[in-house]
């Protein structure tokens, strides 16, 4: 459709967007689209056990994780910003949502990626998803002011971009039943490069490479065996939240 | 992808494909694709009350409904065939499924449309869907023979075409939660012409025109208010059964 | 509404209607309505362990269970008939459904009671429900003949009576989430009398009396503490399958 | 039952009760019952785009929407009050719930209508429903004080009135599967008059008239074709949240 | 596995743990394990109607319920503590969760029991469950400080203990579909003794004794008729929230 | 409990039990229990594409797959038998169920493993599960005769063994949400040896080895990080169908 493609990724912690949506981000950038990542926290408490064990301070840990996330975003070709809301728990508030409303209006996303609404293993993920979804609706209303109270400005409201939930750990326990399988074969080298910007989680590099292979097998199986997709097809899985709008069934 | 587009519509009764999928069929034909409709029955017992009241015989009713369905298919630009399995109830059997396997292999569909798997108001619809889905899987296996026992022929097996369920009456009671909204604006005049080939159900013409308007409103709402879709957008709703395979999130 | 009240109860085995719907049946009869019970089998194989252990023959067991069910129906004030389709497993067939179509047209039910569609402990129950629901739809169509092929007769087709599923054993495993709580206080003595017609299952008398007490507590709780329902309120629980049609929200 | 009928409608924004429950409200008033509408906000930010575009101030918009809502309530014969909690987002708080507890105890509702608990298109609706449901439970407890701290007064606690969710936009995406179809034929002229008190949403008049027609068709279909309901039956759809308490299955 | 068994029960109100988990608690104590009960509130507003009617003050009611709960815990052999967060409504907050994190780290539970996540009759129960689950995840992270800000201490983080939801009132309305049936035959006398420490709810003694009998019947039925479980088997039902980890399918 | 452990695995095709339940089978055998595999078909049509392409006849393919399955069963230490019901489609019939009733009574299983009830990619799997579940219930009834009509024999009826569904391909599309994670570390070498008896599917060897590693990670995560399970823990995932009966929550 007419809007300029713009991808917005709302991530609870600093690393989530790399593992879970790195392929979609790199693919969008490869197509010449803009991609923006918003990290609601750095994951400084819940996902930095080794740094705490090494005696790092809170500020050191946040700085470290920020630097890693910036490097990974650069490897994917995406812009990145940090709201620094704190994690474990990530606290929901109208003020945080208002800041996200500003992000939506500034970036005018045509596609939004975020976490699933259910995750028994990490409450920050659903909290991020709830705020991302609430802000998306508020940003559509001309009567809703910006976070600084500026009010109202017609040219800033957004349309109704589709939202996709990316894949959680232990997805079966998170009601994650993917209805979109994304072919990320061409984008995968960039995703791999971004993963390698996160050296503390080196064991995840092969985990997420293997996952991309398995999702690639499903891309091929659901497309049919005789359609000529190569054996090395790589994939990512998503749940589309709103109905798809299309001119063609395919 | 590489396969030549071919649309296969499996309909329990002679009229279902017109009301529920006429837009998708006409749109495919307008794009130059092939469309094939298979009617498992004529709807001679369950959907022909006025003819029974008028004293028509079973054979007369079947002939009448066949002629109407052929005219409607012609208006849409689709091929049509009839398996004449009987309705109310539509009886499932391995033999009927085998005939559908032959249809799949002959038409090599890239998209399949059929009924929902749940319908408390009409058991023939889920029965049709079960047979359509079973035949789709069997048709992929080289070891499965044709209905006449011919066996096995490599070049006939099919890929894994996506399946879409079309909209039932009283969809809320049928677990129909659409995840695809199809823009049928350009195709709608053809759908209307096909509906007018079914004069006995004249009250349905306006019902399904109104439904297309309402689904068109949802097309626009889910695409966002500022994307320039015209007010007269017409739509049809579908449930995609298998995950979507795509190279782009959009 | 205008139709004469007529209750139809479709029961997989000879005793089910007593334990599960005896209160509803007796209440209808007390209001002067007609009630008809159809037992699809006698429960001769799956629910007659003590008779088999006592060395009874199949015919003896069937006769015994028929006699007990007739006595229980009499205690409730209901008509009863037996299709003798066999149990464990109860086999579904178009012929059995056609016989049920005849029952529907003959009794013109305004309310239908049957089993739940899910029961991991007894496959005969869902089979009975599937046949009861299919026959209800077929009986509405003028084009569907009777079981003897007689065809078609305008004055026999039925309306669309509401269907209620009665309470299974271990309801939580059967997706039984009741949305109707029936006050059977006045009818309970008749239900108790009917239960006492089934001496082989004497331990069930107190089980189902206790259940009626507990369901009665829920009747009172869901109606509110201050509405004056007596402490000895007795109840039965049901799931309404189709939406309720009403002129008043209450 | 013994309580005097009293209908309480809890609406997130000023107009919701008209479109979604106007028939039920007018029908209750026609039966001589009391009806009270509580608007939690005016919908001043999220549902007043045209006023913002026309350069109106926040206070002007709130005054305008209050006046329209009052006129609509008068056309239905209902009392109306406004909590002015703000919208987009409607903020949940124990203080707002306490004010609703007071409303419950003052109006002693025998029936409650509110929004669905799920709505991906508008977070204010589920927020209203959550507060309505929480207040309903608190209002039953003698130990819970009023919003002003007054404490405790035996004669004020309420029973357990049934709750019905009214129909959202795009109900399929809101898990709206109606289990009650309300015949509003006689009340519809009053609903239409109330709708016409909201001139800014003139395009909704025909939308909701058409919806009433379609729900009326479902009223007739689920009641059966031969029960003599007129062709012009009008309807509204609801989801009953708690089990129905009844003395008769019908 | 290697950890010392420690049972943690998180209860919204002072009495919940007795009725719903008394058997599991006593059974753990009989096996020589430690059991700790945390009452988030005393149930002073929502579950003390008779004391309010008798003119007791808030402090008197809280003291009374504390004494009863302590006696019941002693009868079961469990430790007990009270967070006094207030009830009706039980307010969720990060501070309350932080206090629970401390409890988790102090008691190092190997099994956790709490309420279901859904309860249309009492919002305090899901609120307690949400806090119990959130604290369980936070307590696993070395970067999460204690409630007093003490930070970080390696030896305090916990593992991932299984969580079981205990049985609510009107469980069918609470999505309570038990997947664990616990044999509490030997523990039942202790549960009964604990119930008798709550004289104000004397009518519950027989209710929960009967429930234990019925759950005991289900223990026997699901174990099979020929396994030699005695007729007087008593049971409690639970929902396991996370997947079971086991070395043996049984 | 008192019964001698006996594991029964009901598999639609000849290879399913190896990939999906090989670990559970080998673990049972290592504990000294008996394990019996029943293959309902050889998978001769649906899962033997390479043999068909190589020009093998139906009988040759069946013989080949039988030999492979026998070798794999031997590697696991299990007995194996074949009902040869045909595949693609696997046809359900009362006669086939009666043969399974005989198997149940002969093997007296204390644990049953079979396919999931939903599988959009392979209809034979749910068909096998339906027959396995139906036979399990029938085998408990003394009134149900054997497949040869022998009737009735008290000592043959079975108890109510728990049933576990094993993991399908693309489990997310099959409603497979595992609630049991089985530690198969010690049994894995035997599973690997059994897999290597199926040389035509060599690419599956590494796929299922990797899956066992991933399920092993989940075993460790759900047991908690500090419980000392080794890094090389291997796992299989299951869905328990009936509630677990236990004396200890753990």
Give the secondary structure arrangement, pairings included.
6 copies of one chain form a homohexamer.
Chain A: E1 6-11, H1 16-30, E2 34-39, H2 49-53, H3 58-76, E3 79-82, H4 94-107, E4 111-114, H5 124-138, E5 163-166, E6 180-183, H6 188-195, H7 202-223, E7 235-240, E8 244-246
Helix pairs in contact in A: 1-3, 1-6, 3-6, 4-5
E-strand count of chain A: 8
The number of helical runs of chain A is: 7
Structural class of chain A comes to alpha/beta
Of all protein chain pairs, which has the greatest interface, and how many residues does each chain bring to it? Answer: A-B, 48 and 49 residues
Our measurement of the CA-to-CA distance between the termini of chain A, rounded to an integer number of angstroms, reads 17 Å
Contiguous uncertain segments of 5+ residues of chain A: none
Q: In the CATH classification, which architecture of chain A applies?
A: 3-Layer(aba) Sandwich
Proportion in helices of chain A: 25-40%
Oligomer: homohexamer
Structurally, how many domains make up the residues of chain A?
1
Strand line-up in the sheet with most strands of chain A = 3-2-1-4-5-7-6
């Amino acid at each position: 459709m007419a809007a300029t493609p713009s991808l917005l990724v709302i991530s609870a912690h600093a690393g989530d967007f790399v593992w879970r949506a790195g392929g979609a981000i790199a693919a969008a950038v490869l197509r010449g689209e803009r991609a923006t990542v918003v990290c609601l926290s750095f994951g400084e408490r819940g996902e930095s056990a080794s740094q705490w064990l090494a005696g790092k301070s809170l500020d050191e840990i946040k700085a470290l994780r920020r630097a890693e996330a910036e490097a990974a975003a650069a490897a994917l070709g995406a812009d990145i910003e940090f709201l620094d809301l704190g994690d474990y728990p990530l606290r929901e508030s109208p003020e945080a949502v208002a800041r996200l409303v500003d992000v939506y209006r500034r970036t005018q996303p045509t596609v939004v990626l975020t976490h699933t609404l259910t995750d028994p293993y990490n409450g920050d993920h659903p909290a991020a998803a709830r705020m991302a979804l609430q802000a998306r609706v508020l940003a559509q209303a001309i009567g809703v002011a910006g976070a600084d109270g500026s009010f109202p400005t017609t040219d800033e409201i957004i349309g109704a971009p589709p939202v996709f939930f990316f894949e959680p750990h232990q997805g079966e326990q998170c009601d994650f039943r993917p209805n979109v399988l994304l072919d990320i074969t061409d984008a995968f080298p960039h995703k791999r490069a971004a993963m390698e910007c996160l050296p503390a989680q080196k064991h995840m590099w092969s985990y997420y490479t293997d996952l991309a292979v398995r999702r690639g097998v499903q891309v091929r199986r659901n497309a049919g065996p005789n359609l000529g997709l190569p054996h090395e097809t790589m994939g990512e899985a998503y749940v589309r939240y709103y109905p798809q709008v299309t001119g063609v069934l395919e």
